[in-house]
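Problem 12. The chain below contains 256 residues. Write out its predicted structure in token notation.
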Amino acid sequence: MAYPPAGGRTRQRLGRAVAAALGATAALTVLGLPLGLLWAAVAPDTPVVMTARGAVYAEPQPEQPIAADGWFSLLGLGFGVLAALALWVLLRRWRGPGGLFAGAVGGLGAALVAWQVGRRIGLSTYQRLLAEAPDGQAFTKPADLRAGGLHRFLDVLPVPYGNLLLPAFAVAVTYTLLAGWSRWPSLRAEPEPHPAWAPLDGPAVGCPGLAAGDPGPAGGVPGPPTPGVSSGPAGSPAPTAAPEPPAPGAAEPPRG
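Solution.
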């Protein structure tokens, strides 16, 4: 039977690991859609009032924008923890740096998708009211982030910051802790070694003539003792025979 070369098997394993990491990254990014819908459902809208200068907050110091950031942070942290647990269990064959990288990148992608999905729910209605609402009309502004977002590095590259990084942070921390607590160095379940039979240090009992460490008959199992051969240690005195009873008519030894 011909076997593929070792290099070919290594490339196959590497290709499967890369495919699994890319699939996990894409799956986590898509899960940002329900995460954004959940955030839009629990985060409160901010009440505003239209004035001659434009829309202003209906309250001097509204708490709704802070609550929206808080909800996004809590949901992002929970999503990251659950994502790390899912990667650890479902991708047990590819545990390691690839799983950690896939979780971190997928968590960041999910945060971006959740932010864009959640902030756009009700955004078109809010923009229409900004353009058409008369003075004094009250309406609400949909939830958005103030403690996170994207800024342009060198006015070209968008870089996320703030609570957009929390899902990726939660994935990285949870996955690293699971790897640190793993009982296997390879991070994958390995069969437990069975204790091997160790030969005796001394000669086998009942098998004279064997040197120290030689196995006994039948794979080291000692057999029955040989007739006429003592199983006790060498040089031990022979047991003393019991005294015979005195012959009839013999004088009894003096008593007292």
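Discussion. The first helix runs from residue 6 to 30. Students who got a different answer should revisit the alignment rule from Section 12.3.
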